[in-house]
Structures are given as structure tokens and as C-alpha cells.
Design brief:
The protein has 236 residues and is an alpha/beta fold. 24% of the residues lie in helices and 26% in strands. The protein is built from seven helices and eleven strands. Strand 2 and strand 3 form a beta hairpin. The protein is globular and about 45 Å long.
Length: 236
């Protein structure tokens, strides 16, 4: 069975291994594969296992790697070795966390592929993040700014911290999806102000049909309402 699954026009998702971050917090990993006119783009690339590399190869050559924030730097070097012709597009701060990794360009508000992918830089003091909108599939791609873990993903004191931080969300009923949210640490790091409101407004204006998070259940129904709710804490 392929580790990649279709998730819309010219878009596939692939889950990687669980990684352990600071203080023992364990995070699932997820990659999106976008088919572009000149080849594939890997968003938030996961570990390039033989199975994953083989599945990607069936879709086409890898021409671009997208590191949406500096915290998602673990596998960029390995994918560059596997796809030496690929260009690495990284969010601000990436090079400080991944010294020696060849970065082609630092991402900002200018779209990589006009008419295919829109992008907005959301500044914050933890890790500035590039939020993308893939127009062919109607998908908003968010790395860490939205998280929606199952309530029982973290246990013990980590479960308490995750719940207080807004990383986990209780289900509203049998079979209900987990609503995404902006963890409180990122809310504080993003600050306030007209510039931030303008950037979030651009995200909310996209004609989204679904939302993919690196750490959380993808949203496939009423995506605009999910996004409005997720950023509803930001004052007008």
C-alpha cells in the first residue's frame, strides 16, 4: 500500500513517523505533495524512507521542497540528497536552525507559483510561518499555527500542558472531527496589530474547501467556518 493518499486535485498527503521534540512531546508528522507544472513540490517533507521515495517517484520528479517554518527542518537535507536538483524554499529563520543546509530562497509574501499557490507570511517570535493555499484542490496548508490533536494524544503532565495550551480539543460527539486551534503560545508570539489582522484576513478570504495541518486532523467540511473559528480570538 502506498504511503501517499490523494487529497484533491494534484495533492497527496503522506504521514511520516512520530518524532519527539523538546520536553518529550511527541508529534505525528505529515507531508503534502503538490504537483506543479515543472514537477513536484514537497511541503513539510517527512523522512524519505524507501517506501516514501518510491511513492513520490511514481508521481514525478521532486523539483521543490517547502519548509513552512524553521521548526520543520529535520528531513530537508535528506530530501536534497535524494533529489539534488530540487530547490529548497524556506521560511525565515530556517538557516539558523539548519546550518549547512542549502536554502535556495527565503519565503515571504510573494507567491512561488502565481495562480496555483498563494502564500502569506504570518510573523511570530517562535517561528515565522508561511501559510499556503493550493488553488487546484482548494486546500489551505498550515504547519504549526493550527493544531488539533485528539484529546488523548498526550498523557500525564504533557496532556495537561497541551490542553491548557490549546493543542488538544475535546470531541463534540461520536465521530465528530477535532476542531483546529491556534495554540496559546503562538497567539502570544504572534502579537496583535493591523498588519497581523491584514495577513489573517487574506487567509480567511481564500475560497478554502479543506485545511491540512502538519499536526492535526485534516478539515474537509465547512473549511471557511473552521478557519474563522480558529482565528476568532484575534480582535478586530
Amino acid at each position: 500500500m502506498s504511503p501517499l493518499r490523494p487529497f484533491g486535485t494534484d495533492l497527496w498527503l503522506g504521514d511520516g513517523p512520530v518524532v519527539t521534540a523538546a520536553l518529550g512531546f511527541r508529534y505525528p508528522t505529515r507531508m503534502a505533495v503538490l504537483r506543479m507544472p515543472q514537477g513536484l513540490a514537497l511541503w513539510s517533507p517527512v523522512a524519505p524512507t524507501p517506501d516514501m521515495r518510491a511513492a513520490v517517484a511514481t508521481l514525478g520528479p521532486v523539483r521543490h521542497l517547502i519548509a513552512p517554518n524553521a521548526l520543520h527542518n529535520l528531513h530537508a537535507a535528506a530530501w536534497l540528497q535524494a533529489a539534488p536538483d530540487a530547490r529548497l524554499h524556506a521560511a525565515p529563520g530556517f538557516e539558523r536552525r539548519a546550518p549547512g543546509v542549502r536554502v535556495t530562497d527565503t519565503l515571504g509574501d510573494s507567491p512561488l507559483w502565481p495562480g496555483v499557490v498563494d502564500q502569506v507570511l504570518i510573523p511570530n517570535r517562535i517561528a515565522p510561518e508561511i501559510v499556503l493555499f493550493h488553488r487546484p484542490s482548494g486546500t489551505v496548508l498550515v504547519c504549526d499555527l493550527l493544531q488539533g490533536f485528539d484529546a488523548d494524544w498526550f498523557t500525564g503532565w504533557r496532556g495537561l500542558v497541551a490542553r491548557l495550551d490549546g493543542m488538544t480539543h475535546a470531541r463534540t460527539g461520536p465521530g465528530a472531527t477535532v476542531a483546529p486551534g491556534v495554540p496559546r503560545k503562538f497567539r502570544l508570539a504572534m502579537g496583535r496589530g493591523a498588519d497581523l489582522r491584514s495577513r489573517i484576513a487574506r487567509v480567511l478570504a481564500w475560497p478554502a474547501r479543506q485545511v491540512v495541518m502538519a499536526h492535526g486532523t485534516p478539515v474537509t467540511e465547512d473549511a471557511p467556518a473552521y478557519l474563522r473559528r480558529a482565528f476568532g480570538w484575534l480582535p478586530d
